[in-house]
Amino acid sequence: MTDLSTSSISRAQQLATQLAQILELEFQALRQQELDQFEQLQPVKTELLSEITSLAPPASLLQDEQEWQDFRVQMLVCRDLHRRNEVLIERKLESIRGTLQSLRIEEATSPIEVYNRLGQVARFSRAQGYSDA
């Protein structure tokens, strides 16, 4: 193995470790709903991925080359971290979609559930409200 390939492997492993750290920061930002922080991490992540892509051999060769195994393992960890973040984003989107769906007015006669003065759920018909007006 040449010094060049050794330095490439070492640099790729460092970048993969940094990528894992960025993915952890992404997760924390998503959990705490700090979207500005999440957005600030995206260019950093993209740059890391670009540099990793330029250093690492194709995936088909990674499996065969023993010296790249630590890097490969670290990238599998990054894949799992990315998937975790993706699941969290999907859950948040589903929650938002559900909230928006509940706020949509589908029919003028559909009942509305609201809280009365005692904190109890009361059902009102929209049509009744319009006729009172």
What is the CATH-assigned architecture?
Answer: Up-down Bundle
Beta-strand residue percentage:
5-15%
For the largest beta-sheet, the strand count, sense and barrel status come to:
2 strands, antiparallel
Q: What distance separates the N and C termini?
A: 84 Å
How many separate helices?
5
Shape: elongated
Rg calculated over all Cα atoms: 25 Å
Structural class: mainly alpha
Q: Poorly predicted ranges (pLDDT <50, ≥5 residues)? A: 127-131
Q: State the CATH topology.
A: Methane Monooxygenase Hydroxylase, Chain G, domain 1
Helix content: over 70%
Instruction: Quote the average pLDDT.
Output: 83
Under CATH at level 1, the class stands as Mainly Alpha
How many structural domains can be distinguished in the coordinates?
Answer: 1
Number of strands: 2
Spatial order of the strands forming the largest sheet: 1-2
Element-by-element helix/strand order: HHHHEEH
Kindly describe this structure.
With 133 residues, the protein is mostly helical. It has a single domain (3-108), classed as Methane Monooxygenase Hydroxylase, Chain G, domain 1 (Up-down Bundle). The chain is built from five helices and two strands. It is elongated.
In short:
The protein is mainly α and 133 residues long. It has helices spanning 3-31, 35-55, 59-62, 69-103, 126-132; strands at residues 111-115, 121-125.
